[in-house]
């Protein structure tokens, strides 16, 4: 695959916005051409595992999670082209600059494809799932086409990383109802924007976010990469999902020690 190149650098205002609001949307990090290359690489890798054409649309018996998206993780280990995307130093440097740290490691990647007609992504924060100490974690959300709100562009609750609105809740019907009620009570601003191909967003592990259902006739394809500051330690898991994450994304890491297994390479 042609190597996609970007030299995007964040400025101090964007870093302040990220730290104050818990997320930042960055426009034009990649060219539409680069995004097309990425889309092909990610879709090809997913297609090998899941027959996207034969994917059954979610039905009323599916959970909110199943209705929200098709999720495929750590694709970098199966596809050279996706590995190049996940190891992209520009993205890793942006993650480090936003968090104000000198280096970042990979936690894992994941493709999140919301089918045409797919359900909404319930409100949640990601770090509920991660057995990681500290706050220096961030996810880049990379839509792989122009993405309207109707298609399921990611939406954020501004400043929600600073308050516990339901950090103990896994993604699902309960997280949606409990967190949306608390967000309304606290009157935190909900920020929703369409993304052009090439725009990306970064959100902190504690930022609450969601996406609308995909009411268009096309799938919403997105790739994400989760970064943690180099030096992040494993904490004693606090729920079964964190225990499962430990085994899957950093097997062999020890509680209280820095997470640096072969699955967690230094990216910058
Ligand atoms: O793509 C989505 O709808 C959800 C994304 C998400 O929850 C995440 O990137 O942490």
UniProtKB/TrEMBL annotation:
It comes from the Bacteria. InterPro entries: Phytyl_CoA_dOase-like. It holds the Pfam family PhyH. Keywords: Dioxygenase, Oxidoreductase. One of its GO terms (molecular function) is dioxygenase activity. SUPFAM superfamilies: Clavaminate synthase-like. This is Phytanoyl-CoA dioxygenase family protein. It comes from Candidatus Marimicrobium litorale.
């Amino acid at each position: 695959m042609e190597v996609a190149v970007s030299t995007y650098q964040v400025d101090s205002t964007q870093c302040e916005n990220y730290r104050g609001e818990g997320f930042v949307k960055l426009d034009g990090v990649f060219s539409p051409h680069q995004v097309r290359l990425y889309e092909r690489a990610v879709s090809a890798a997913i297609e090998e595992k899941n027959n996207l054409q034969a994917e059954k649309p979610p039905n009323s018996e599916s959970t909110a999670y199943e209705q929200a998206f098709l999720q495929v993780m750590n694709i970098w280990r199966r596809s050279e082209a996706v590995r190049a995307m996940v190891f992209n130093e520009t993205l890793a440097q942006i993650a480090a600059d936003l968090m104000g740290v000198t280096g970042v490691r990979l936690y894992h990647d994941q493709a999140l494809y919301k089918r045409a007609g797919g359900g909404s992504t319930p409100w949640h924060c990601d770090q509920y799932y991660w057995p990681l100490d500290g706050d220096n974690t961030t996810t880049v959300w990379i839509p792989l086409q122009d993405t309207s709100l109707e298609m399921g562009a990611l939406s954020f609750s501004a400043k929600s990383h600073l308050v516990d609105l339901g950090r103990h809740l896994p993604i699902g019907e309960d997280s949606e109802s409990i967190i949306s009620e608390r967000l309304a009570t606290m009157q935190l601003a909900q920020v929703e924007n369409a993304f052009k191909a090439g725009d990306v967003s970064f959100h902190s592990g504690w930022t609450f976010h969601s996406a609308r259902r995909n009411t268009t006739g096309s799938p919403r394809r997105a790739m994400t990469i989760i970064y943690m500051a180099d030096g992040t330690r494993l904490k004693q898991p606090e729920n079964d999902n964190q225990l499962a994450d430990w085994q899957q994304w950093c097997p062999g890491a020890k509680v209280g020690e820095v997470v640096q297994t072969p699955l967690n390479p230094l990216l910058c």
